[in-house]
């Protein structure tokens, strides 16, 4: 990759008003460049500073979609019937996509996880699993995950280009609670 400076700060790592409470970006050390990929820093968007005023939302240092403890629990499971390596990798990639604002990827990865898990519980499809497995409360959560995330991912994958596009936000892919319930149930079921 070529070393491309940020179009906003031109690679200086500075923004106009650091004295207004803005702080130097800890990820790029104020350089404005992603230290690993030679692109504008993903944490400070190339500014070199994370703004602390109300006009700009500060990203959390650790934005995970899947709780890292859940991933570790999945990795530690020893199942003779199922190899969980793909599920673990999908969860890790979902965290990477979510923490870097790659929300199209998040929608697709959520759908991949949802489609991947039903055989663990003896079902062929997630729709069958969400309709037949668990308590009413659990079924409601899984139906929300099935219906909402599937339609969202279908839109991301199959919508044609338009004259004007609006990019997805974190709120559009907010299925963390339902995903955690699913992963927790997998862990309990296979333990």
Describe the 3D structure.
By secondary structure, the protein is an all-alpha fold. It has 2 domains: about 1-60, no CATH class; about 70-190. About 45% of the residues lie in helices and about 0% in strands. It is built from 6 helices and 2 strands; from the N terminus they run ββαααααα. The chain has helices spanning about 70-75, 85-100, 105-115, 125-130, 135-160, 175-190, and strands spanning about 25, 50. It has a two-stranded antiparallel sheet. The longest helix is centred in the last third of the chain and has 23 residues, at about 135-160. The chain is globular. The model is unreliable at about 50-60 (pLDDT under 50).
The biggest sheet, with number of strands, parallel, antiparallel or mixed sense and barrel status, is: 2 strands, antiparallel
Number of separate domains: 2
Total beta strand runs: 2
Global mean pLDDT? 81
Shape: globular
Enumerate the strands of the largest sheet in spatial order, edge to edge or round the barrel. Answer: 1-2
Helix/strand structural class: mainly alpha
Query: Helix proportion of residues, in percent?
Result: 40-55%
Q: Give the DSSP E fraction (strand runs of 2 or more residues).
A: under 5%
Low-confidence stretches: 51-61
Quote the distance from N terminus to C terminus.
Answer: 44 Å
